[in-house]
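Appendix B, Record 12. Input sequence as logged:
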Amino acid sequence: MSDSGTFTADDEESANASTKRRTLQPYPAMLAYWDKDELCRFVNNAGLEWFNQKSESVIGKMSIRDFVGQDLYNENRYYIRSALSGHPHVFERSLKAVDKREISAVVTFIPDTNKGETVGFYSHVADVGHLKKNSDARLADEKELLRAIIDIQEKERSQISEILRDNVNQLLVYVNLMMQGKKDNPEQGAFSEDMKLAIHQAVLELNKLSNQLYPSALSLLGLLPSIENLISNYRQHGAPDISFYCNEPQIEELSHKDKLSVYRIVQDFIGLILNRRKSSYIITELSYRDFCLMIRIVYNGEGPTIDHRSDEFRDIRSRIDYYSGKIREFHREDEKVFIAHLVFHPQD
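Logged structural output:
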């Protein structure tokens, strides 16, 4: 204020600066401004606290490299140089606080331009650790729900499979007794060859259906032999040429539940193809390395596209979501390609 009692331009600038300091200093996120020589021109209290610095040692004196440390500077050097070239950036970064805890942060760099020239940039660093924790907790709850749904489905399939196997066994016992009775009493006649063939075929079909419901061989023989057996059951007159490739036996180190999920994805997707398309071939490949699995299924033919609203496809997606996976589908000339990526956790 001047001696005459009126506000001057200097008074207004001083008041604005004072208001700016009161507004920005208590702000919980780090705010800073760095000039074109990467020298600090402003930093609020949050930034000083995060990096254990004092204002008088930083503003106008310290470079961003010295302020954050060589390692963190190297991690962000590309973004710093790019911001000073006029390009804004938003990215995530983990920071070490003074108390050695990890801070999950979202970092924003905004270039400051004057007459087309970049003269510095603003940096805004916000701690989003609480959001990440909430997100992780929500993801854990979603995975727990998916696991429960998958387990219920498998339990139901297993129970139906056991009932079918019991029925098959009872049928075999009955047939054996009847045949023994015919043998002991020739006067009662004998089973015709057609009847024997029909009974044999019925037993095979029941066993095949039972195995489709729950692959009992999975725990005895492993994933790869079980998929081979699954595909061999699909091979019949008029069916597509179905092939399976996997040259990575370490996949058998997965847990039984994980192998069952892989088996189900392959089984359900091949079933969708056979039910909706007239394909002449289906190629299935598994690639596994460092707990990451890729399922690749290539097929051709005419007919409706795979119905993503079907129960089978929803089951496929649920299993892939459970393993934090992704699905890709695309055309390649006359072929269609389905690729699923799954991430497994090492066994304790």
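Residues 129-214 form one domain.
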